[in-house]
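step=predict obj=Potassium channel family protein n=333
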Amino acid sequence: MNLFKFWQFYFHLPVLVRLLLTVLLTMFLFGITIHLIEPNHFPHIFDGIWWAFVTGSTVGYGDYVPLSTLGKVIAILLILTGGGLVTFYMATISASTINHENELSKGSITFKGKNHIIFVGWNERTKQLVKMITERDIREQIVLIDKTLSNLPYSKNTVHYIRGDASEDEVLEKANIKEAKYAIITSDPSKQERQADQTTILTTVAMKGNNPDLYIVSEILTKEQVTNATRAGANTVIRSNDFMSTLFFHELFRDTPVKPFDVLLEVLSSQQFEQLLLPNEMVGKTFLECSDHYVAKDFLLIGMINEEELKLNPSFDIKLKSGDILVGLSKLK
């Protein structure tokens, strides 16, 4: 009964583990056998095991050689069995490695990490985000969920790809949604605006339901769906159409030859937004005094959050209170 349980346990082990155990057991048996047959030439069991590994792997250093006829017969059997096992083991490792990378490229492998960022949708926006994170050496693990890609070469990207619909629990489980820290849901460019927004909202609901603590940034195209996205659980809603429309308007009706938005975007690409809790020494100071204080520290103050309300470019005379949060730009580190 105990032997049956052992074999049952053995055959439930992964293939690579079973092969490794078989190779080790074979080498140990041949090593002990040659020690018993030729104790003078192989005085210690380890000498026999060493000879078995060297011979079975076809390395053949020649420091130990069986002298008796029976010992040579054992060596022949070792070369035929042990050599084949070692070769098969190495070939299996190589095949498993290639197969694992292929499965990663196809988006079939479950992500096991924690505190990662989930991107939904593989498009120019997410490509640029991945590029920015990589170039700036921000050590955040990225999981991409997309149902349109047939594969995403793992060796050429720093993201873990999961193929499927991000609104489905099974797909979210593969992305380890419960251990994720942030999620960015981009709008599907292949759908009409209203339909794309509905998909974004549905994905937001699914993600929030699986991880209530997940910080979600959702891209919404139509103004009417912003409230619904917030209700669904989005912490931040990006209205990309409004932003692009503003850029187009100012580009059409600007009077100066300088392109202000090109300059602004270039500046922003070298800066990062930061939020700082107002320090005690700044309580009671004016926004202007606080701004002058942080300019010397290469931190450009552009606004504040007071009682959960964001105020950009507030009056310089406004008095800062304990609990206020400063919003500004700092140079990328």
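step=describe
The radius of gyration is 32 Å.
step=end
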